[in-house]
Amino acid sequence: MHTKVKAVKMLLAGKWVHAEDTFEVCNPQNNQPIATVPLASKKEMITAIEKADEAFRNTEVWPTHERIKVLNKVAAYMKEHAETFAQTIASEGSKTINEARGEVKRAAQTIQISAEEARRLNGETINFDQNEGSENRVGYHYRFPVGVIGAITPFNDPLNLVAHKIGPAIAAGNAIVVKPASVTPLSALLLAEAFVEAGLPEGFLSVITGSGREIGEELVTHPAVQVISFTGGPNAGEKITQKAGTKKVSMELGSNSPVIVLKDADLHDAVQSCVSGAFSAVGQNCIGVQRIYVEEELYSSFLDTFVSRTEELNVGDKMDELTDIGPMINETEAERVEEWVEEAVSTGAKVETGGKRSGAFYSPTVLTGVAETAKISKEEIFGPVVLIESVSDLREAVQKSNNVDYGLQAGIFTADINHAFYAIKHMDVGGIMINDSSDYRIDAMPFGGTKRSGIGREGIQYAMNTMTEQKVVCFRLQENML
């Protein structure tokens, strides 16, 4: 059965427009086209940026209550059309329909939180009289929007990660131009539709679709763009920082997330959480569980239980509500994961389960005995593969956890609070989950990492701090003038 291919427009400064050229968006499960989308040129990207700058500069007053009203309407629209959003996410991406529905719920919450944070964008008074000779000075600082935000988003959360860019930008009073992933632009365009329906002023949002090589550099380097917000791989992130110059940059660049399981942990709870954390969204998740270090007394039982639970997962049609794992984003990515696993096996690793590819599908895979020099030990696999290793104690587990160039999130399972606090103190990560896998996040928390995992923090309040500047106001009082 062939799916009807629909022609989709992109949003350029509040107007739905075509482009001279188009490209196809395909369902990765069967590689069938589901939509044709505008292939924007540099000219259209420049127009979007200039229109955004113009809209921002010509809007002398955009009251907080109006921004709140728009964001609340968007959240309500998303909830009303939740199944349409979910079907779109599942059709263009890798997520199962159940995972897609979960993402829609989160994305609506992200927009709702943005509305709430808009009213909390406050400043503080400053005690100028702490400085001798400044007894007659009083003042404060407040935050003001920077202008135009440039956002580049990945394929793995094609709706919620776009919401994490647009929501804070609008809440803070900025205009924003979004370049979504070329393989999953439909969810971003659907969110743009919600903002149009909610009455967002023209020019404050553009979603420009096309090749990152063609239009991405213009978004990064254009002088009107004040902040770059990027979610993606570290290599692309490093290139962006080199080109961005003195712009403010916020980046989430992935990880190679560790989880530690100590002998006093609840075995079944740890297994259940780690299986979900390793294989949800086909492992295409920046905080997904990739390395598990198990204290040797529990190792054998943990491994057996983990493998057994993994083999219960249902791989298949992502639109089937009984499916746990669908395809990867494309066959090329599945082939890359296959190559990484084969390289690990060639240096001594054992495949405990999985290790099979069929087109874009790659079976959930558990490896043991992986060499520290293997690529899969050091880099982000971004696929349904997890490494399990025995360690003698917590110190060894922490040392091995830190022995990579990433540090986004980690997890530890233990009943001992002292062990938990040892991990909290010594693990070099941006977030640590106690008795949870690394794959836990709420959208209101500060989210980001150390080392090559990124720059700055996302999470609505924290993104808004990046998307605003502080202005100090000081009054020198002249009492003799009274």
TrEMBL record:
It holds the Pfam family Aldedh. Coiled coil: none annotated. InterPro entries: Ald_DH/histidinol_DH, Ald_DH_C, Ald_DH_N, Aldehyde_DH_dom, ALDH-related_metabolic_enz. Residues 16-473 form the Aldehyde dehydrogenase domain. Keywords: Oxidoreductase. Belongs to the aldehyde dehydrogenase family. This is Aldehyde dehydrogenase family protein.
